[in-house]
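Tutorial handout. Part one gives the primary structure; part two gives the three-dimensional structure as tokens.
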Amino acid sequence: MAKILAASVSFCKFSVNQKPGEIIKEAGIEVDISDKGKALTEAELLSVIENYDGIIVGTDPMTPEVIRKGNNLKIIAKNGVGYDNIHLKAATDQHVYVTYTPGAVERTVADSTFALIFALARNIVLGDRGVRNGDWPRLIGMDVSNKTLGVIGLGRIGKNVVIRSSGFNMDVYAYDPFPDEAFCEQYGVHRVDLDTLFKTCDIVTIHAPLMESTRHIVNERTLSLMKPEAVLINTARGELVDEKALYEALKRKKIAGAALDVFSKEPPVRDHPLFELENVILTPHIAGYSRDALLASGTMVAESIVAAIRGEIPPHVVNKELIGL
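Part two.
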């Protein structure tokens, strides 16, 4: 019997006992469920990976060493859209499919982005803390309507953020090396360079993939370009932001605030400097966590797993060299 490892925390907590888990089990595939409650380490993966025909991952590090040791692997199924934790070349060299779940979480992450924007703009978290502490703070926030919104990355999620912004009469500036010009024209998006975006916008939100060209795209220099009243949102990848530079910018009030759903290391260390600041909101990588999104993503993962184990080409293959594209 074929056997897979479910390492993705969200899949283990939600999908494995729902429809996605049933799809896999009904196909006669055995599922081992990680009980770690967090991403597995490389060492943990190395100790078990050779026992599996497939693996469902979240942010677990699928390094070349792990992939090469997985002699029986047919598929690495990412339960999400960002697959920077999977070494594509190693997977391709080993003839292992890498799949992802496009379209499953884009609306949910866009909704979460606006939730964080409003939480920052209206001091929701500080207000909640104050009331719970017996205080009645009269906190003054800012409006979101009619502000300038800067979107870094106009993929599926970035586009959904833009669509939502139209309901608040926001003036949208966007940076993307390969923009969808028809989309930009339809929604009145100003295509600009990064410096212009940082200088101009009241709210900057990041939706770019993590690669060498985007690592620390938010850094000391780009933060210095932002308005003192501007805020930064990151629901993409932690390493897109230089956290030390952001800490200094927030501490010195060079920008008004930030909201981070992702960190360079997850979970962050307990004494992370950002924890001491009040003008930052921190959430545990949950922007894509809704029942609807997890069900959709988990179902796509399950269908990919079953196809690959059966010797078929699974849907949503990332390393297209394996399917002749």
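Part three, for discussion. The first helix runs from residue 9 to 15. The two ends are 31 Å apart (CA to CA).
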